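[job 4471] stage=fold_predict status=RUNNING
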Amino acid sequence: MNHQPVEGFSKLSKQGKIDWLIKEYLDGNKEHETVLTQYWNENPDLQKLHDEFSENTISNFFMPYGIAPNFLIDGKLLALPMAVEESSVVAAASKAAKFWIDKGGFKTTIINTEKLGHTHFIFKTEAHKLLHFFNFKLKKKLLEATEDITKNMRNRGGGILNIKLIDKTSELEDYFQLKASFDTVDSMGANFINSCLEQFGKTLKEEVANEESFSQEEKDSLQIVMNILSNYTPDCIVRAEVSCKIEDLKDDSGISNEEFAWKFKRAVTIAEIEPYRATTHNKGIMNGVDAVVIATGNDFRATEACAHAYAARNGKYSSLTHCTTDNGIFRFWIDLPISVGVVGGLTNLHPLVKFSLALLGKPSAQELMSILAVSGLAQNFGALRSLVTTGIQKGHMKMHLFNILNQFGATEEEKQHFVTYFKDKTVSHHEVISELEKLRNR
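[job 4471] inference complete, writing structure tokens
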């Protein structure tokens, strides 16, 4: 090994962690320390707050925080906060919002809000025997055992909605599940759900041990493998949509409204049937969704996992959005499974998260679900609109221009030259370098 393992790294001070990293991995180069410390917050209390969000923290990783205005959602005009580093995401969402603002805006419907979790266990017994035990004794005991845990949630209108016994023995020998559905109101509810499930595991073990209908051999075979929520929530779902007469689409790219509608629908259909395209198509949707998820202090990894699992729910990975052009009406929509919260976690701690939620009018969890679905739909509309008209590179590379120029240390004067230079041209990396060399050699 080139380096030595470290003991007690987590117990070192922040400065101690930095000193060790620089000595062990960075040849003692103190310039790296400057990179880390320049991103520290000047307010020590605020920096301490950020340090305590995670473990072994040595700095903050900044991400651009932008605003996409003009979103008319269910009659309310909103400006969406978006934390994202990819060029053109905020611009595309903003452009789509402006496109739809005079056509009725975005409409949303909460289809369901159920969240799920499982107690996974192995039990060598007959399925019908276990089902009888569950129906006539265990289910009631599980609900009773979690009454203290669910009390506050029930007072807010949520709690455990149902518990089912699932027989999975055809897929894995002796494998069963307790599958529970929950309503966690305005919280994402991960801790609440996991606490309930861990109690389910304890109660299951206790009740099986006391059940006379099971033999000692059966009782000894019981193994609680794990108790954990599922990030796949196909019954916690929101629909967002836009629609207008095809004659009102009024795209400014030079093609007719009818051709635009036809090409747009074909692009969506291709994403519905072709997984290679669907993957990129849905990635673009999640550009919009994740940016607002991060800005509001929610878990973008859970959001991603759920959306992509849902996209493959029929056995083939497919588009999350859909489009029709029937009877002269253009309709474009998304059904997005998403579990988010507006209380608990970072929502009560991170200053920018609190700002984001205030900017959005302090939405409920359901209202935030709607906003996120709209953000994804708008992003997808913007991307497809470019793809079927001017092509994706014209807008994307124009936004990427400053990234390229910054790599080469361009001055403000040089940047302004390139803004003018590419006013009627498509930006390319090669063209930027070539023109920059000419400019500097003059």
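[job 4471] summary: The chain has a mean pLDDT of 94.
[job 4471] exit 0
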